[in-house]
Fold:
Amino acid sequence: MKIYKLKTGYTEFLGALLQKGKNVIAPRFAGRTLLFGKIDKAEEAVLPEKYINTVRSAKEFMFPVTEAVVEFSFRNKDVKIHDAHPEEDEKLIVGLRPCDAAAFTITDDIFNYEYKDEFYLTRRRNAALITFACESIDEACFCTSVGLKPDSIQGSDILFKKNSAGTYIAYVNSEKGQKVIDSVKELFEEVIEVVEDIPLYRDLENKMRSPLDTVKIKEWLDKNFESPLWDEYSSRCLGCGSCAYLCPTCHCFDIVDETKYSQGLRRKNWDACQFPLFTLHASGHNPRDVQSKRYRQRVMHKFKYYSDRFNKTLCTGCGRCVRSCPVNLDIYQVVSELTKEETA
Structure:
């Protein structure tokens, strides 16, 4: 791993990338909402010290909210089908937090599983992830419970951390990351000496909520599929799906055909297991016909099913689902309390 000192500030770094013709995605305000979006000027981006996290994660730049996967046209019985092609533009996603960068190392598994999703994989290959370690946290953050830290490098092509003098230090974690550094090498100076361990990040780590015992959680879930506690916790859930739509690791989608006159598109759209229609069969049967079953599915998927298949927890502790829930349903609190119950 190579380490560099950034000789300028964040805004100057973005400006240099833009001057080189790079396609830069960074946290910016859309109205009053902080989201990842394409920037044309460095000043459009919000400084990393000004936010804990964006409202929505950057997953939509690998796995869009909606995308066409097949194009078709028809005239009587003559049907023509054309595969849609994934976008191949290279992009730099800058200003990620460690919890968001790590999320892609988790979703990579499902999009490479029995079927390789070339739409996701093409975008993934062509995107460099440039992460900035957290400088503050709030009560919703719990990344340390799922194996991460405020300055984790997992999933990042470059991780920026501040030293005690407030200078950004870049830790290059991949060839893609080195390519970014080389493109604006006049801004960087290679660091040869040992880099200090910054107290800021350890202090943030110590302020996090008590770590979850994910092994114990999974053991409880293995035994308690029919627990009455699912009714208790889900009684507050509205099934709005905001938790899934804001989550960096949720990846459920629906396939629909949209037609206009003699042509159409088959589209892949985000979906959520919290919606009543998500598991509705054509017969009218719905195996998850009540919210308790749907909420159980969310928790099981995060802490059991994904672990069963990939030995990973489907959560990075970013806290978005906690911040956004209109009824304050906190998944950290739920799984903590579940394992305290003597219902196993």
Q: What stands out?
A: The chain is about 30% helix and 20% strand. The mean pLDDT is 94.
